[in-house]
Amino acid sequence: MTFRCKARAVAPAMILAALGGCGDNGGAPPRVPLSACMRVDITDPAGRPVVGIEDIAIDHAAGRLYLSAYDRRAVARERDSRQGPRTTGGLYLLDIRQPLGPKVVARPLVSADGTVLPQRPHGIALYISTTTGRRQLFAIERRYVESDGEWHRRPTLAVLDLAADGGTVTGVANLRLPPELCSPNDLVPTLEGLLVTNDHGTCRGLERRLEDAFGLDAAFVARLTPAGMETAVRKLRFANGIALARRPDGEPELVIAATRADALFSFPPDVRDRTRREARQILRIDASPDNITTGPDGALYVAVHPRLFRYALFRGHWFGVNEAPSEVLRLSYDRDGTLVAEPFLDDPDGEVISGATVAAFDRDRLYLGAAYDDHLAVCTVPPSPAGS
Prior knowledge:
Elements: E1 5-9, E2 37-43, E3 53-59, E4 64-69, H1 72-79, E5 90-95, E6 103-105, E7 107-108, E8 121-128, E9 135-141, E10 144-147, E11 150-153, E12 156-162, E13 169-176, E14 184-190, E15 193-198, H2 205-214, E16 219-225, E17 228-236, E18 239-246, E19 252-258, E20 263-267, E21 274-275, E22 281-285, E23 288-294, E24 300-305, H3 308-316, E25 326-333, E26 339-347, E27 358-362, E28 365-369, E29 376-380
Parallel strand pairs: 2-6, 17-21
Antiparallel strand pairs: 1-22, 2-29, 3-4, 4-5, 5-7, 8-9, 9-12, 10-11, 12-13, 14-15, 15-16, 16-17, 18-19, 19-20, 20-22, 23-24, 24-25, 25-26, 27-28, 28-29
C-alpha cells in the first residue's frame, strides 16, 4: 500500500482551518521489513492455543505483555445456537524479556479460586500509579444474555488489581455499564475519569442495521466517573481505539480512532460534549484505524486496515477469504505540535498476520495481534534513520 495522509489542525472558532500536514515521507518504505517478523504461536500452560489476540497492553518497565484474547468466530457460531456462547478466552501475561521462539507459553490471569478473569475480554488498558505503584488492568468483557430466543451482548467492565509481579490478581470488580454503552470497544484511564469508546450509537434492531449499512456518525466516547456517565465526544463513525499522547509542550492529549471515517481525532483529555468537527486536529489516512498504543518513545502505534471491506470478509471467512492485509502507522508530533503519521509496517497479503487489530512497540520489538487470527507476530525494529 502506498501511504498517503492529510492532517487538519482545527481551531475552536475556525473548524475548517487547515493548519497542518503529514510530513514528507517521500514515498519511503515502512521502517520494519516483513523479513524482520516472525509468527509466534501462544499457548496457555495446559497447551491450549491462545487465539484472537484483539488488544495488547504493555508494562514497559517490567517487560510484560497483557494479551486480550478469545475465539470470536467460535462465539459467533455458538451465539446463533440455542445453547448460546460457550467458548472462552482470557487475559494472558507474557514475559517479553525472555527469548521468543515460534511457540511460547502465556499465563492466564486468574482469581484466587482459579477462575480466569475475564473470560471474553475485548479492549484493555493498564494503569500504573506513578506515586504508589498501584497496578490496575481495565478490560471490557463481552458477556451474553438470552432475550426472546436470541443471545444478545451485554458488556461489563472488569477491573483487576495486580500485585507487583504483574500476574497475581489481588482483587477484581465486575461493573455493570450504563445501558447506552451497549457496544464498548476500547478504554483509557485519565485523571478526569475512565474514557470508553462506544463503536455504535444504537444497540439493536433497524437503527443498528441502518448505522452499519450507511456508516452513520452515531458512535461516541463516554467518560465514567463515580458520579456516573457523561458524553465526551459524539458524532463519530465507529469509535474504536483510544490513547493518551504527550504533546511537545508536555500537555496530555486524547487521540481517538474512527474506523469507518478513516481518521483520527485529537482532543484535550477533559473534553466534554464535543463533536468530531471540534477536534484540535483531524488526521485523515488512507486506511481504517483500529487500536492505538503508546510506546516508550512517546509515539503512538496504530494498527490500520488498508482494505476494510476485505477485512469484513476475512472476519467471517466469507467467499473463501482467509487473509487480510495488515498495516501499522507511527504517530508523533512535529515541532508545531501537529500529529504526523509515518508508515511503520506493511503486510499487504497478511503474510505475517491477517487483519492486525493492535500493534505495540517496546525497545526494539513490535508486537502485533489480530482479533481473527490465531497467533502473535513479533518483529525486530531496526534503528531509526539518523536525524529522524
